[in-house]
Design brief:
Elements: E1 3-6, H1 13-22, E2 30-33, H2 44-52, E3 57-59, H3 63-69, H4 86-92, H5 96-102, H6 107-118, E4 123-128, E5 131-136, H7 154-162, H8 174-178, E6 183-186, H9 191-195, E7 203-205, E8 208-210, H10 216-220, E9 229-234, E10 239-244
Parallel strand pairs: 1-2, 2-3, 5-6, 6-8
Antiparallel strand pairs: 1-9, 4-5, 7-8, 9-10
């Protein structure tokens, strides 16, 4: 049995499925997807449904799922998309591809999906191989660990899924992470942006490992396919597997 973590698939179902093949993912294994499964790419809803329907997969919410939940109507209708994050999601963060896919579901399926998303957590502590890993999309709050999204305030969630040591506009001090006795595995900011280098590899600083491989760049075309994709960490030995978009063509 192995425990895997990936992040920021951004609607790229094909590379997700190819990654599962590459690591020989089986029913004996477990996979955490730490946010931003949706948006920018074409298959965000399909990825959510795949995770929802696979018992040995778990989604922790990211800022893109958060924006979706604060845009669409909680009753599953698609007539009203005027929620508080509607412009931020649909326009600024390219959520329209996800919404178009979402509206094709029947209303009962939409309600089921929203109920499942609302029951997801943001942060999880996982004990593997004598280490305690803190899995979260970006930031954390002690009083929100392993608490469902539905039980948290908008402000609590916003800080956890948006704040980061790697962007000055939504900055969280790295000292907040380093004083904890945990190994953090996070996403949210592509490693290429952090390192300012065009390559696909994990970024490590102090007790933080960043595994956002830049799937968001696939839709924009801002990076070569060989330099962006998925980064997967196996927690038992912290082994890293990468898969670029050029690898799956």
């Amino acid at each position: 049995m192995a425990t895997y973590v990936i992040s920021d698939l951004h609607g790229q179902l094909n590379i997700f499925e190819k990654l599962l093949e590459k690591i020989s993912f089986s029913e004996e294994d477990f996979l955490y997807v730490i946010g931003d499964a949706i948006d920018r790419g074409p298959d965000g809803i399909a990825i959510l449904l795949k995770i929802m329907n696979t018992p040995n997969m778990e989604l922790l919410l990211g800022n893109h799922e958060f924006m979706m939940l604060n845009t669409v109507s909680p009753d599953g209708s698609v007539d009203d998309i005027s929620g508080r994050d509607s412009k931020l999601w649909l326009i600024a963060n390219k959520g329209i591809s996800t919404f178009e896919e979402y509206r094709k579901l029947d209303e009962n399926r939409r309600k089921e999906l929203l109920s499942w998303l609302s029951s997801r957590q943001l942060t999880r502590l996982v004990e593997v191989g004598g280490k305690t890993f803190c899995l979260t999309h970006s930031y954390f709050s002690d009083d929100a660990i392993e608490i469902p999204y539905s039980e948290l305030t908008y402000e609590q969630v916003r800080n956890i899924v948006w704040n980061t040591p790697y962007r000055y506009d939504i900055y969280a001090p790295i000292s907040e992470y380093s004083k904890k006795p945990w190994t953090f595995v996070i996403g949210h900011v592509p490693v290429q942006r952090i390192m300012q280098e065009v390559k696909l590899e994990i970024f490590h600083e102090e007790n933080i490992y960043v595994i956002d491989g830049g799937c968001a760049y696939k839709a924009s075309g801002n990076l070569p396919d060989s330099c962006c994709g998925v980064i997967c960490m196996r927690l038992e030995d912290m082994d890293v597997t990468t898969l670029s978009f050029s690898d799956v063509q």
